[in-house]
Amino acid sequence: MMKNKVDVAIIGGGIIGLYTAYELHKRGVDNIAIYEKNYLGSGSTFRCGTGIRQQFGDEANIRMMKRAVEKWTGLGEEINFPKFKMAQTGYLFLLYDEDEMSRFKKNVELQNSLGVPSRIISPEEAQEIVPTLDTSEVIGASWNPTDGKANPFLAVHGLARYLRENGVEINEYTEVRDVIVKGGAVDGIKTSRGEVKAEIVLNAANAWAKIINEKLGVNFPIEPYKHQGIVSEPFKKGEIKPMVISFRHGGAYLTQKANGGIIGGIALKYGPTWDLTPTYDFLREVAKNFTRIIPALKYITIIRQWAGYYAETPDHNAVIGKVKEIDGYYISAGFSGHGFMLAPAAAEGMADLITKGSTSLPLDFYDPYRFERGELREQAVQMG
Ligand SMILES: Cc1cc2nc3c(=O)[nH]c(=O)nc-3n(C[C@H](O)[C@H](O)[C@H](O)COP(=O)(O)OP(=O)(O)OC[C@H]3O[C@@H](n4cnc5c(N)ncnc54)[C@H](O)[C@@H]3O)c2cc1C
What we know:
The chain has 384 residues and is α/β, with parallel strands linked by helices. The chain folds into 2 domains: 1-87 and 147-221 and 314-384, FAD/NAD(P)-binding domain, CATH 3.50.50.60; 88-146 and 223-312, D-Amino Acid Oxidase, Chain A, domain 2. It is built from 8 helices and 19 strands. The strands form 4 sheets. An 8-stranded mixed sheet has the order 5-6-4-14-15-16-13-17. The chain has a 6-stranded mixed sheet with strand order 8-2-1-12-19-18, sandwiched between helices. Strands 9-10-11 form a 3-stranded antiparallel sheet, with no helix packed on it. The mean pLDDT is 97. Bound molecules: flavin-adenine dinucleotide.
C-alpha cells in the first residue's frame, strides 16, 4: 500500500530524484517518497553518455562538479554497493586552432585556481593517453585526469536499493498528475494511484518539469530536445580510457565502456520536441566524425542507437531552487547534457535548502528566476 502522507514527495525517479532523496535521508528526513511515472532511470538518466567532468568555464559549475566528483568517488562505499565506482579516466578536449586554445587556457587557469588539476598538453601527450588518435591537425588538448565516467544503471540501482532498505518509499509506474496547493502552500499531490498529503514537494521531472509547473501557474523555460547516443561492438579493450571531445567534429564525445564497446554521440539535436525516434542523419554523422578522430574505429560496428531528452534552458544551466509563489514547492530540473554528473552536488544543495533554508554550494547560479530578470549565465558546454 502506498502511504497517504509523507514529509517530502519527490516527482521523478531519475538520478536527481534518487540522489536528492539520499541526501535528505542522510539529514534525518525519514518520511520521503519518490513517484516515478515509468520505471526508475527511464527518463534521461539511462540514456546518458556516462561522462563526469570538472572542466567547465565558470566558477559555479566547476565548484559544483569538484564537489560532485568527491561524492561520486565515495558513493559505492557509502551505500554499501562497491560494484558502483566512478572511473577517474579523465576528459581530453582536443584543440585544433588558436581560438579554442586561448579559450581552454583561460578555463584551465580558472579550474586550477579552484583546485582542479587540469592542464594543456601537447598532441604527443594526447596520443600517449589515446594511442589510436589522429593528432595530425591537433595543436594541443585540455586534459584533466580526475574527470571520468560512471555507470548510470549501477548508480540508480545502488541508490534505489539503499533507499528502499532505509525506509524511503519508491513508487514506480505512479504518475504525479497535480500538486495540491492550499492557501499558497503545498498540501499534497494527486497521483495515478490516489492522493498523498505532503508539505514539501520537489519537482525533479527534468524534461517533463514544465508540465507540472504549468498546472500551478509557474513557468521556467525548460524544453525537451532530442539528443542521441550510440554504442559499438567492443574495440581494443582499454584503448580509449578518457572521454574524448572534439568541437571540430560535430561536438563529438566518445569513450569506452568496461566491456570495450564505444559509447558516445555528437551535438546534433532536434527540438523542442517530444519525438524520440532515432535518426539516420545522426548515425551517419557519428560514423563520419568518430572515424576522423580515431580512424581505426572504421573497422567496428555500431550495435545500438537511442534517443533521449536534454531538458534545455536558454543558458543550458539547470533550474534549482525554491519556487517563491508556492510555499513548500522546490524544483531541480533542466539539466541539459550534464545532469548525471551534477547529481550529487545538486542533491546536496537541494537537501540543504529543504532542511536548512540555505547551502554553502553556489546554487544561486541556478536561480530559477534568472531568466525573468534577463540574467542568463554563460552558456555551459552542452556535451557529456
Ligand atoms: C544522449 C544523451 C547523452 C547524455 N550524456 C550525458 C553525460 O555524459 N553526462 C551527464 O552528466 N549527463 C548526460 N546527459 C544528460 C543526463 O542524462 C540528464 O541531465 C540527467 O539524466 C537528468 O537526470 P534527472 O533525474 O533530472 O532526469 P530524468 O532521468 O529524466 O528523470 C526524470 C524522471 O521523471 C519522471 N517523470 C516525469 N514526469 C513525471 C510525473 N508527472 N510523475 C512521475 N514521474 C514523472 C520521468 O519518467 C523520469 O524518469 C545525456 C543525455 C542524453 C539524452
